[in-house]
Design a protein that fits this description.
Length: 415
């Protein structure tokens, strides 16, 4: 379900004056009985009490994810203070390396007043083969995959990856580094990839890690945040200790392994030093074939949207997936397009794609008969697929025994 434009802020910037106006309007509606659901909430909290502005403000605060109106106001004041009194100079931010798995926040960091060096690792580790190989071989395999999946020139991709991994090798010599991460698989795999590479660690290594923002009903990623929100996040960074780096190395090797068993063990445990990692790993394991239909969770959710909506454009499927169907959003739009191609560009497709002359978001998708059968569990997709599927170091070869995932997100060997 998408966020209501007035009930939550897309970029995290909450306007107090606007919320006060909303509270007054809500009070008028409450007095006329126009919002019975909210009156019911008040009746539980204040039985037989006349409706007041303070109660309407409490309802607005609760809707935005706060326990009270004063807590909502304190949050807004904290963001405003951080924007007006950044501690960048005192923290020697100008000499800091900011690392991110994309360039989605660089512009807003600059607008917020950050002056350090911004570096990225754009290798989409949640897609394609990811194996524990010597650097040159690893980068060659990743370059080929990225160029094929996203229609990019292999040489351009190879040069970019070489530069990024060279910078990552130099990171151990840094004085101060801050990693900016979200809770999804794209970011958490980036996190363990970076941490696994660091020996020794920079003199000061810190992490800004978030899975939600107050006032945003459905937080998708840092790229949606306003500059003031990024400034507010800065003092919330924390040190990354040796324990976290050791754990990252172990999990990175498990992710690169040809068997998902060790990875599943890590995914089903909570890790104090990296608390957002396990849920992301569980979600990534769900990209293995489901034991009933052979579909990854991304494939299954996308097919369900097409089935429910009839013929529908890529753009609408992606929007609906991000708006509420995907439990832990991690795909960019081009990644989504690439993820669906094996279901289409094959002799026995699950989807058809029309209007090839249009930009891909406007092309229309429809389920084939095999798509309906597979989605209903009456056909098993890897029996018909022609493309290899990789989840880290695990490869699913079409028509051959392979690893699958059961309803409890445990790996099983399917013969």
């Amino acid at each position: 379900m998408s966020a209501h434009p007035l009930s939550s802020s897309h970029d995290g910037q909450i306007n107090l004056a606007q919320q006060r106006k909303r509270a007054k309007e809500l009070l008028r509606r409450l007095k006329t009985g126009a919002s019975p659901d909210k009156l019911s909430l008040l009746a539980n909290r204040h039985p037989s009490s006349p409706v007041t502005l303070a109660q309407a403000q409490w309802l607005i605060a609760k809707e935005l994810g706060f326990a009270s109106w004063p807590k909502l106001k304190a949050h807004i004041d904290a963001i405003d203070f951080a924007a007006r009194h950044p501690s960048f100079a005192a923290d020697d931010e100008i000499n800091t390396l900011h690392w991110r798995c994309g360039n989605d926040i660089e512009h807003n960091l600059r607008l917020a007043g950050f002056k350090g060096t911004f570096q990225t690792l754009t290798d989409p580790l949640c897609m394609g083969p990811v194996q524990a190989l010597p650097a040159e071989e690893y980068q060659a395999i990743r370059s080929r995959y990225i160029s094929q999946a996203f229609g990019m020139k292999t040489l351009d991709v190879a040069h970019r990856l070489a530069d990024e991994y060279h910078n990552l090798k130099q990171l151990s010599q840094a004085t101060h580094c801050v990693l900016w991460c979200e809770a999804d698989a794209y970011d958490q795999l980036f996190l363990i990839r970076v941490l696994a590479e660091l020996e020794p660690a920079p003199i000061r290594l810190e992490l800004i890690e978030i899975n939600q923002i107050p006032g945003i009903e459905r937080f998708i990623g840092m790229g949606q945040l306003s500059p003031d929100l990024l400034a507010w996040l800065w003092p919330q960074r924390r040190l990354i200790e040796q324990e976290a780096r050791q754990l990252a190395r172990q999990i990175w090797l498990a992710y690169c392994d040809a068997s998902p068993v060790k990875l599943a063990t890590f995914a089903h445990e909570m890790h104090r030093s990296l608390p957002l990692l396990a849920p992301a790993l569980l979600r990534q394991l769900q990209e293995l074939p489901g034991i009933q239909d052979g579909l990854s969770l991304t494939e299954r959710l996308s097919l369900q949207i097409v089935q429910a909506s009839g013929p529908v454009t890529y753009g609408k499927v992606f929007a609906e997936l991000m708006a509420g169907n995907e439990p832990l959003p991690y795909l960019g739009d081009l990644m989504f397009y690439a993820a669906l191609q094996p279901l289409i560009a094959t002799a026995k497709p699950l989807l058809t794609e029309s209007d090839a002359h249009l930009d891909w978001p406007r092309r229309v998708l429809a389920l084939t008969e095999l798509g309906h059968l597979t989605l209903n569990g009456k056909s098993y997709w890897p029996d018909h697929a022609t493309h290899e599927r990789w989840v880290g170091g695990v490869c699913i070869h079409p028509g051959q025994p392979h690893w699958a995932i059961d309803e409890n997100i445990n790996p099983l060997w399917r013969v």
